[in-house]
Amino acid sequence: MKQLQDKVAIVTGATSGIGQAAARLFAQEGARLIVTGRRGDALDALVAQIQQAGGEALGVAGDIRSEALAERLVALALERFGGLDIAFNNAGMTGETRSVSELTLDQWQAVLDCNLTSAFLGAKYQLPALRSRGAGSIIFTSSFVGHHVGFPGMAAYAASKAALIGLTQVIAAEEGPHGIRANALLPGGTDTPMGRAATDTPEKRAFVENLHALKRLARPEEIARAALFLASDAASFVSGTAMLVEGGVSINRS
Hints:
The chain has 254 residues and is an alpha/beta fold. It has helices at residues 17-28, 40-52, 67-81, 105-133, 155-175, 193-198, 202-211, 220-231, and strands at residues 8-11, 32-37, 56-61, 86-89, 136-141, 180-187, 242-245.
């Protein structure tokens, strides 16, 4: 039996990278999907691919920072598929690479709005729908950056991703009595468009690869499989965790 058979899932940031890989994998495992991202053309292509493979998906293009979008995604899950079982709040951005003393308030706020506030808004509307099912899984994409690695120039990104772990823990404590599991996924360096933008020279890529014990970047599909675990009943007693999927960055000293 497929791991997410007859489950309904929301995936944000689904037009590329980890979100796109997770949407495809969730669909392969039987989930019916509401997917969102900023680029309508890429979203349409993803939905078409899922449908051609025999899956079910509905795409809604929009700005993840919008409370109206967060509400609409849940409303569509209820209207089209009858409920919500899984939410993968994955959308994010790195922002401007500047030192704290050079970072403007607008630049700081843009990253927090995209990475943290959007996750709060998603959860605000997702949790009542999950609660009505009597169980569910909500997942946030955090990062090894801000957890055990501090990169110069990434203050806003690190702060937002670290804060997601705190949000995850509170939701896990609040919603556990309702059967809802909340977990943060902490990927290492991943070969995505966003990751490649941060490693845009051979020297930068080699440096980041060497931070990992495995001496390479992750493929988006590898992170997606970890998200699938957290979404599925295989993780039925896993909640409140900051799950490292980072190729050994935290232990590597070589």
